[in-house]
């Protein structure tokens, strides 16, 4: 089954990104597998193709403007439009015990380069192609630890976490999401932030209690929203014991 729909997923060579590529490939999307390392990208392309997906590796380092521009040109030359962009690439870093007072600027900059500046770079480079699609979707893979509402709620299980680089980068990404949704509100494009929940990937030493496939369900839902779907939300796994998905507080 093919749908003539194209999706570009950053950081799609492993983890939640690869699982998202597999699921959207299974739904007939042509999957452009963003990977900063060409070899890892080709390997993911092979794995996805073996699974029946129409997948193509695209070299893309979200922190490198030239790499992003090259990737955008490739998509433009080949398809002339893009139906879905999943800003999935992300990193987590910490200093010392991870407490805010031990944060170094080097770490903060490194995390923001990927998780925040990278998303803006990629989105702006691809926006003309997204606007050229009938009704594009942008999914920014965020996190519940970026929710100021959740992280300051003493009753929430995540309350004990106090760290600056990763959580604050995802808070910034949430605002980035809300602002793009606002700018694009009179277009058919929908822009939402995804919370995959705590998934076992290399990002966290594979300590998560959800699988990457379960995490990817959230991105896939937001990538395939219908015309009446929402825009400008943080949506995903609710860590409230209900084992369900829903809208989360910013
Ligand atoms: N796992 C969780 O529990 C969890 C929870 C909430 C949110 N998230 C978010 O989910 C997203 C995916 O993370 P994951 O858990 O699947 O982690 P992962 O397995 O470590 O995958 C991260 C992906 O991002 C790529 N990446 C990192 N820096 C990049 C760059 N500069 N340019 C392009 N790609 C880059 C990595 O490529 P390389 O292989 O080359 O390093 C890899 O493909 C991230 O945004 C993360 O913050 C994860």
What does this structure look like?
The chain has one domain: 3-Layer(aba) Sandwich (Rossmann fold). The mean pLDDT is 97. The radius of gyration is 17 Å and the shape is globular. The protein has helices spanning 15-26, 38-50, 65-79, 105-131, 148-151, 165-183, 212-223; strands at 6-9, 30-35, 54-59, 84-87, 137-141, 190-195, 234-237, 245-248. The chain has 250 residues and is of the alpha/beta class. The chain has seven helices and eight strands; from the N terminus they run E-H-E-H-E-H-E-H-E-H-H-E-H-E-E. The N and C termini lie far apart (37 Å).
Question: In percent terms, what proportion of residues is strand?
Answer: 15-25%
Q: Name the CATH superfamily assignment.
A: NAD(P)-binding Rossmann-like Domain
The value of Rg in angstroms is 17 Å
Q: Label the overall shape.
A: globular
Summarize the main sheet: 8 strands, mixed
Order of secondary-structure elements: EHEHEHEHEHHEHEE
Category by helix and strand content: alpha/beta
| CATH topology assignment | Rossmann fold
Tell me what the CATH architecture is.
3-Layer(aba) Sandwich
Helix content: 40-55%
Bound molecules: NADP nicotinamide-adenine-dinucleotide phosphate
Number of helices: 7
The pLDDT mean sits at 97
Tally the structural domains. Answer: 1
Strand order of the largest sheet: 3-2-1-4-5-6-7-8
Low-confidence stretches: none
CATH class: Alpha Beta
Would you count the extended β strands for me?
Answer: 8
């Amino acid at each position: 089954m093919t749908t003539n729909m194209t999706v570009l997923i950053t950081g799609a060579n492993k983890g939640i990104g690869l699982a998202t590529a597999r699921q959207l490939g299974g739904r007939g999307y042509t999957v452009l597998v963003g990977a900063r390392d060409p070899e890892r990208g080709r390997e993911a392309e092979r794995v996805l193709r073996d699974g029946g997906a129409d997948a193509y590796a695209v070299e893309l380092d979200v922190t490198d403007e030239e790499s992003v521009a090259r990737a955008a040109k490739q998509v433009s030359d080949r398809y002339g439009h893009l139906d879905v962009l999943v800003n999935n690439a992300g990193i987590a870093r910490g200093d010392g015990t991870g407490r805010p007072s031990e944060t170094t600027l080097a770490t903060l900059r490194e995390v923001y380069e990927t998780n925040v500046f990278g998303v803006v770079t990629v989105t702006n480079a691809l926006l003309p192609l997204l606007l050229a699609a009938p009704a594009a979707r942008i999914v920014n893979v965020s996190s519940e630890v970026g929710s100021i509402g959740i992280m300051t709620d003493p009753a929430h299980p995540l309350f004990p976490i106090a760290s600056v680089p990763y959580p604050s980068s995802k808070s910034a990404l949430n605002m980035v999401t809300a602002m793009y949704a606002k700018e694009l509100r009179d277009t058919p494009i929908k822009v939402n932030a995804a919370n995959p929940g705590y998934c076992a990937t290399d990002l966290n030493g594979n300590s998560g209690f959800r699988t990457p496939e379960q995490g990817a369900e959230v991105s896939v839902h937001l990538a395939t929203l219908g015309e009446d779907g929402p825009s400008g939300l943080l949506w995903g796994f609710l860590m409230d014991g209900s084992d369900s998905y829903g809208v989360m507080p910013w």
